[in-house]
Amino acid sequence: MVLFYLTWPKAEYLPDLERRTWRELDYLGSALLVVSSVLVVFAFQNAGGASTDVWKQARFLAPLIAGVLGWVGLIVWEIWADRRWGDRIAAGFPMRLMRNHVYGATVVNTIFLGFPFIMLVYAFPLRVQIVNGKGALLAGVMLLPMLGASATGSVVAGVINGKKDRVFETLAASSCFVTLGCGLLSTLSSSINVEAKGLGFLVFVGFGFGMSAAGCTMVANLKASIRDHAPSQGIIAQVRILGGSIGIAASAAILGVTLRTQLRGIVNPDQLASLESHPDDFSQIQLDSIRKAYSDAFSEDMRVCAVVAGVAIVLSLGTWSRNRPSVQEILSGHVREEKERRKIVKSPT
């Protein structure tokens, strides 16, 4: 708070923002967005953590179907609200943004790249702990190459798009890097020793994600009007977390299926739950079987991530635009449009 206070700009340097009333907030759209996202993720997370096959049971199907219906309801509501009120309502998921093919493709691409990155943040430390026998702190530290590469990728994307709109090239390249990194990570063995190449493979994923994160932020800034800057950035952030949440749920589901398949008759679920607190209670054969199962589950995770990231490469093609003015021209155009819109709003009818 002290830093915010000391660095807060003077009034003349603050942007000229238009205040909106609480009555303009899209309460129903925001609620549908949150509820539908949570239900879809909950369904897969619940299935992954179950000790039995629940894919055909109501505990999986009910929240999944409800979540899908929620997404359908959200789209129908936002289309109706857009036709009924236009920009007089602060839509939670503005359809006017999605009509821009570059922004729409970026949103979907973000979902598919959030899936492998956040899954890897969850699955890699878990693998290091179980397969390589390292502590939780060291397992987390081993993500530093990916996180450092992510920061580097963001800087590179900023430089590339500083003056000219090169979002298509940025997102295509970032998707390729993530696909390459996930594919390489699927080749790691079940050796108890940490393979140095695994840390190098993390760099590809981190660099690609960093480029994607910066590129998507620029798309939200360049393709949305000033009035829609907040929802455009919020949607990008929301769908990235949504993709990552689905990725974590998918990883848990893959791990659950793998453990049930490979450890049947070797380790029971109650024993597996005590692995971290009582590792000495297991025989060497059991520990080797557990390491092998976790390693195979991680490799399957990365193969799935490689496929998902490969789809993101195809989706990035949707961000291609023939007419791409400079960044300064685009931002100046947004300012002119906003001034004209405010004049129309303030003018007597």
UniProtKB/TrEMBL annotation:
User: Which InterPro entries does UniProt cross-reference here?
Assistant: MFS_trans_sf
Entry GO MF terms: transmembrane transporter activity
What SUPFAM superfamilies does the record point to? Answer: MFS general substrate transporter
Q: Give membrane topology per the record.
A: Multi-pass membrane protein
Entry GO CC: plasma membrane
Q: Which UniProt keywords apply?
A: Membrane, Transmembrane, Transmembrane helix
The record's principal subcellular location, in a coarse class, is membrane
* Transmembrane regions listed in the UniProt entry: 27-48, 60-81, 102-124, 136-159, 171-192, 198-220, 241-259
Domain of life according to the entry: Eukaryota
Where does it live in the cell?
Membrane
* Protein name per its UniProtKB record: Major facilitator superfamily domain-containing protein
